[in-house]
Amino acid sequence: MGTLSARSIVAGYSAADEVLKGVDLEVHPGEIVCIIGPNGAGKSTLLKAIAGLLRPSQGHVELQGADITGLAARDISRRGLAYVPRAIYLLATMALTENLKTGDDSEREGTVMAIAVAVTRFPILAENRRHAARGLSGGERQMLAMAMALMVEPAVLLLDEPSAGLSPLAAEKLFESIVAIHESGVSIALVEQNANEALAISDRAYILVDGRNSRTGNAKELAEDPEIRRIFLGG
Ligand SMILES: Nc1ncnc2c1ncn2[C@@H]1O[C@H](COP(=O)(O)OP(=O)(O)OP(=O)(O)O)[C@@H](O)[C@H]1O
Ligand SMILES: [Mg+2]
Predict the structure, then answer these.
(1) Inter-axis angle of helices 108-121 and 138-150, to 10 degrees?
(2) Which domain holds residue 176?
(3) Among the four 48, 145, 187, 218, which has the fewest Cβ within 10 Å?
């Protein structure tokens, strides 16, 4: 039984023109899986279809053995899947701890506990916890977004281009955070343009091209594949 299993997903933004033409994605328990591919391939659309932001017109999504196909995003989140979109929405004028509270709808005591866990996981947030979110760097914002997503204590975390717009150093720190989250027991699927870095921290990888699975396999093997290197990894 896979932690997350999306099979033959057909989905898009209008019925006449499906972006995903039958895509498969599996995240096995304890895995980090990355999804790479050209712009417009449907990577973000796949995450949205899994997270319940788009309803697949065909195919099935299972989370921890339960069919979640077509459920609302909120219900999917409650069942243990967290999704961090590429465009991070933060309440810029609110202090960090206030932003973290918006990431959780449980009782007050639970929220306080979850914030404590979040700042333990991301010490940078503890240092800045009274500061407004707009005073954060891109990398700190991304960590805040991930901390918010983790407050539901998900089994699976979906990340859409977490390193987008970050400096190489900030991206490196972010990938370290992703590895630490993974080591704490969360299975992860991430979409990345920084394909080399993403492959380096992943167990398996999926290459999507034009709404279809192109290649799938062991991340290290794909990273060394001459054809993959030439087309997707810059030589
Ligand atoms: N909200 C939307 N409404 C209509 N079409 C969309 C929408 N979002 C994406 N698309 C279209 O769906 C296709 C796939 O987009 P998607 O964002 O999934 O690609 P991607 O692989 O994530 O690309 P990128 O690497 O640029 O982020 C593209 O042709 C895009 O124009
Ligand atoms: Mg995208």
Answers:
(1) 140
(2) 4-232
(3) 218
For a substitution probing ligand 1, which of 9, 21, 35, 43 has the most ligand atoms within 8 Å of its CB?
43
Bridge partners (DSSP) listed for residue 26? 5
Task: Read off the pTM.
Answer: 0.88
Domain harbouring 27, CATH code: 3.40.50.300
Is residue 13 in contact with ligand 1, taking CB distance under 6 Å? yes
- Could you tell me if the CB of 101 is within 6 A of ligand 1? no
- Six-digit token pair at 40? 């417009």
Q: First and final CA of the chain: distance in angstroms?
A: 37
Distance CA 6, CA 212 (A): 13
Q: How far is the CA of 146 from the centre of ligand 2 (A)?
A: 17
CB of 210 closer than 6 angstroms to any ligand 1 atom: no
For the Cβ of 39 lying below 6 angstroms from any atom of ligand 1, the answer is: yes
- Based on the structure, what is the number of domains in the chain? 1
Radius of gyration of the chain (CA): 17
For residue 25, give the nearest of 2, 5, 42 by alpha carbon: 5
pLDDT 10s digit of each residue in the chain, 235 long?
Answer: 569 999 999 999 988 889 999 999 999 999 999 999 999 999 999 999 999 999 999 999 999 999 999 999 999 999 999 999 886 655 555 666 666 666 555 445 555 556 666 666 777 666 666 666 666 777 877 888 888 888 888 999 999 999 988 889 989 989 999 999 999 999 999 999 999 999 999 999 999 999 999 999 999 999 999 988 888 877 6
